[in-house]
Amino acid sequence: MHLSLRPGWLAGVATLALTTPAFAAAPVAGSPAAEPAAANATDNSADQADSIVVLAKRADAASLEFRSSVPVAALSQEDLQHTAVHNVAEALGLLPGVNVMNTGSSYFGGVDGASRGEGMFVGIRGLNSEYNVNLINGVNVAQGMPYSRQVQLSLLPPSGLNTIVVEKASTAEMSGDAIGGTVDFRTPNAFDFAKPFHMSVALSGRMETRDQDYGNAGLGGGFNADIAKRFGDEGQFGVYVSGYYDLRHFTNSELGGVMAAQNDGGWGYLLAGDSSGKTSAAGLNPQHNITQTGIDFGSSSGYTTRWGTNASFDWHPDDTTQVYLRGTWASAKTEQDSTLAEYVSDSKSWKQVPGTSNYLLSVNTISPRVWYETNPELASLGTAALGLRKQMGTWTVSPQLFYSEGHNDRPDHIEASERLNQQDNYNNGQSLPLGGQSITYINGLPQPVLTSAISNAMNNANTVQLARGAGQLTSEYSGQTKYGGRVDVSRDIDNSVLQQIRFGGNYAISHRLFTEVDWSNGKFANLIGHGGETWQSLGLSNSYYSQAFPGVYNIRLPKVNQAALFNYFYQYKNDSSLDTCGGTTTDNLNCDTMRGSEAVSAFYLTGTLKSGNLEVIPGLRYEHTAIHNTYWLMGDGNSVQSGWGNNSTHYNEWLPSLFANYRPNSNAVYRADLWWSYTRPAFVQLGGGATVSVGDTVTTITQGNPNLKPIQAMNVDASGEWKFGRETQLMSGFYYKHLRNYMYDNGSGYINSGTLAENTTIYQTPQNGGSGDIYGLEAQLRTRFTGLPEWMGKLGVNINGTRQWTSVDIGAGVMKQVQNAPAWLANAQLFWEKGPAEVDISFKYRGEYVSQYAALGIGTWDDLWVRPLKTVDAHVGYQLQRNVRADFSVANIFGAYSYWSHVGHDTAALSDVVDSGRTLLLTLKWSL
């Protein structure tokens, strides 16, 4: 089953690309959008003072940050070229206050998402990625993720962009639904280059070392090119087009200890308070009294291809008029296959320790298994904008029409397994006896206790274990389209404290569709008519990886023939296979379908007042949101019939702001900012599908909650920035956010589930949490050492650090740290330049953070924590000729695990781990 969400016309404008209205709004004076053109700008840079320009050098990014009236952080084109990261999400981790996450919600969650081995989402200043606004050259991009308002930033490779600016505060003319921050990805237009004609071509080669550990080549590469041309009698026309393509192959190692604990009961208390094993022995810290009883381990392999194009057309008929047409298209296709050897604690018991009231854990039997699943994804993100900027004396008018669409589809996800104790009409497989403890620990990682029989069953799974089901297939499609327009008007005022006044408004409407359908075939033996079939006898696997997790788990791992599995699935698929929700055919086709529309109307008024060295920017923004959801109501099969339901939600938010900056001289700026912002709940929380359960006396309805409140925030920022000579720049700042009606990411389920009784009907719906606070300190130092001998070249450092304190009521007065908010974030870079050569050594540190609340459903000590990550990267660049450059980078030189999460803050006994090795990247670029 395949559903198409894409308007056919958009494919025709795929040549429009990744830039956005350079003149989308009249910018705040001194803000990033108001920066003068960088070093590569045209001679007409004065005419381009309000355009979004490319920041070519690190110095350009530093200059933008210093001159901005509000707190921002920027990555230049040079920064993006000097790293071997997989995508722009990882590149953003170089900036202060930004946390990069390689897991998200739905099928991106947990170790499954992390096993891709790349960063996918970013959190800013202690808040999850749902709390950010993402722009491509000023266009607010569509949110295609299922169950979430996240945007998958791993779509965009660093080669496809030139500048990234993180705006940490929201002025009145910006979207108000950004509590974390606004990430603006920028690309150039033809008027950003010094010469009338520009062209560049770059080729890259990539190597993934963990893929090589499994005996594969681990190779990939890419191509990107751009061309810009100004033409016309007076150079009034400009065209810019760029395109990119890259390919990455990966095979990463995966330990699923938390997965085993959540799905197969693969954990237990070593000493329990009773024979049920459900409570920890009295007087013992539960976190120091737990152990894995079963684990999953293996590999996640596949490839990702990304391609996209950026384009712009500009017309400057005179000095007061600028017309632009811009757009972008980015696509990614991922094939991800995970194969895990499973060591399942099939039977456990607790026996009383003589003379005590405690009960000792014993794992009586082990069920050796293998589980295989695919995690394919087709993702895309596009924008288009048509606009005008017209100056009429002291007035400037900037109208714009825009469009965006985003998709995150998972077509044809298939699962299959084999196990020793397979039970069906023809097989009577049995688990293997063990007794005592089933897990030991070496270097902090769980190791299975293997008898000769268990070892044989796991090492020779293809011939010893029995084939189970003939495939379970899920097709999932999720997308959003967004379009609208805006008008921004400004007036400059001479000889007045009030130097400028700005006002305007915008209207955006988006349409959302999510659908999922699932089919499950019966057991192989029942379908074939006899038992004894294995993956090898069926042709599903005829070979092995010699080590499931090289260096840690040396058990052999089957290599699955995916084509053969799909052939079996479609051979045995029939009408009874459809079982999305276990209801009727109509229920199964519609129960996981949700449609929604969201219309946002906004108006703002702001201005710039200046007296001496003090600049003040007051503002007020109003946003009205109307959300309408349609979902499937799944009845009880008797008194309540299935059918489509709908609900509506409306929000009205007044968002005042006040920004002030004081510049006592050209080498210092002090900022103090206060503003209000908010974030709307995810569509699934507002209008998720409903189920009805009818009892003897009451009817229970579980559904989304259209009465959820938006998450609101009061934000404070204070910072100072100083220049010392030409080579040193220092920033220090403080920020504070007070949250109300907090909600957090919970994958695809409801959160803070509460009940509401109306006569004989009980509604179970998601609920808002309470209030919370985020405090943070940021600092950054850029300096180049002076006074060194000429033969030593130029040596410098770039260091930034963030310290955060978070606390929030997640519901019912339960206080927790904010999700995905590390207490510490730090980056340190040492760079050296001499002649045509340069070298960078970078150190990144991300502290521990809470990823999931109540991972085991206990709700006290069992939050899921992600361990600190420390990585070291290196880059070497050389200018071979005037227009030819070579760059070589290595990411994660010392091979740190890219992901390690564990249940409980004080123990790593129940852990998920991903080892994705090192990444090597070689790029050769020619430019004209």
Uncertain regions spanning at least 5 consecutive residues: 1-52
% residues in beta strands: over 45%
Q: Could you give a short account of the major beta sheet?
A: 35 strands, mixed
| N-to-C span | 48 Å
Instruction: Give the helix level as a range of percent.
Output: under 10%
Q: What is the count of DSSP helices, taking H or I runs of 4+ residues?
A: 14
Shape: globular
Average pLDDT confidence is 88
How many strand units? Answer: 48
What is Rg? 29 Å
Structural features, described:
It is a single chain. This protein is mostly beta strands and 928 residues long. Helices cover 9% and strands 52% of the residues. The strands form 6 sheets. It has a 35-stranded mixed β-sheet that branches. A hairpin with a 2-residue loop joins strand 20 and strand 21. The longest helix is centred in the middle third of the chain and has 11 residues.
What's the short version?
The protein has 928 residues and is mostly beta strands. The chain is built from 14 helices and 48 strands. The strands form 6 sheets. The protein has a 35-stranded mixed β-sheet that branches. Strands 1-6-7-4-5 form a 5-stranded mixed β-sheet.
What's the topology here?
Elements: H1 8-12, H2 58-67, E1 72-75, H3 77-81, H4 88-92, E2 98-101, H5 110-114, E3 121-124, E4 132-136, E5 139-140, E6 163-167, E7 181-186, E8 197-208, H6 209-213, E9 219-231, E10 237-256, H7 257-264, E11 267-269, E12 271-272, E13 290-292, E14 295-318, E15 321-352, E16 359-374, E17 377-392, E18 395-419, E19 432-433, E20 439-442, E21 445-448, H8 452-459, H9 461-464, E22 466-467, E23 472-492, E24 498-520, H10 524-528, H11 535-538, E25 543-545, E26 557-559, H12 562-572, H13 585-590, E27 593-611, E28 614-634, E29 643-665, E30 668-679, H14 683-687, E31 690-694, E32 699-702, E33 711-724, E34 728-740, E35 754-758, E36 761-765, E37 772-784, E38 794-809, E39 815-816, E40 824-834, E41 837-846, E42 849-852, E43 864-866, E44 869-881, E45 884-891, E46 899-903, E47 911-915, E48 919-927
Parallel strand pairs: 4-7, 28-31, 32-36
Antiparallel strand pairs: 1-6, 2-3, 4-5, 6-7, 8-9, 8-48, 9-10, 10-14, 10-47, 11-13, 12-16, 14-15, 15-16, 15-17, 16-18, 16-19, 17-18, 18-22, 18-23, 20-21, 23-24, 24-27, 25-26, 27-28, 28-29, 29-30, 30-33, 31-32, 33-34, 34-37, 35-36, 37-38, 38-39, 38-40, 40-41, 41-44, 42-43, 43-46, 44-45, 45-48, ...
